Model the fold of this input.
Amino acid sequence: MRDPLRLPSADEVAAARGAVAGIARRTPLWRLEADVPDTTIYLKLENLQPLGSFKIRAAVNAMKAADPESLAKGVMAPSAGNFGQGLAWAARRMGVPAVIVAPDTAAMTKTESLRALGATVHRIPFDAWWQVLTTRRFEGAEGVFFHPVAESAVVAGNATIGAEILEDLDGIDTVIVPFGGGGLISGIGSVIRRLSPATRMLAVESQAGQPVAAALQAGGPVKVAFDQSFVDGMGSSVVLDEMWPLVRETVDDAVCVSFKEIADAIRLLALKHRIIAEGAGAASVAAALSGLAGKGTIVCVVSGGNIDAGKLGGILNGQDPF
Done:
């Protein structure tokens, strides 16, 4: 039986920082040059992690927290790519096999990276992938199952980002976090709630679907329409039941940005700041630039930079990827 999912304690966040030290980078907080009245925007650049995503923090911490003997048959996880890369990297380092089940909507650059890390990759239709995510089963695969979101050690790994943000900057009004499954914002939010309770935690979603906004309004998870898009690192049709208590405790509000706003943010980051962000990573910046996050000092978590080269090239050339 799995332990109940919960927010990490201060001691668990400290332990996670020790677990990922020397593997995950302590990423910089970069001031964005943008003309937004009465607003200062900072970027937490998790796209600069060794595998291009914050997920290395979560995956490494989860692997190190597991019983080493249980890992002998290997590890497996459903992942659109970023968590899978972190898990495959850690598995290769520990000498155990990794199986990653990816939705067929995942960026090819991510699945190619998974194979380069030695993982066995299965690309399956999104609905079938969602079943693997929710049932924690994939026929024919052995090894310890690691959920990319709903694991206490995953949330604790993500919480290390929040600790770094607060060490680097005081007086933060709002932290904006892209919402995929809730593990990132819950981890960061656990630290912000404890150490900076006046800071607002804002989840950003895209026009593909807004399950967080619906859940906050209804007081619990409800299913919403969800369309596949180039923003492959975030979004779903519902907030997972097991994640809802954590989301409810750490998220103040949710906002929605359009595909065009995300593409414009990707273009701005690349051309003006030489920062490469994937769709999910740029969504937080799009929210800040739109004014949806309000005014004051805002921190945008740029969650990753793993975007297909062709897609990025089209965006930089002014094409809309939708």
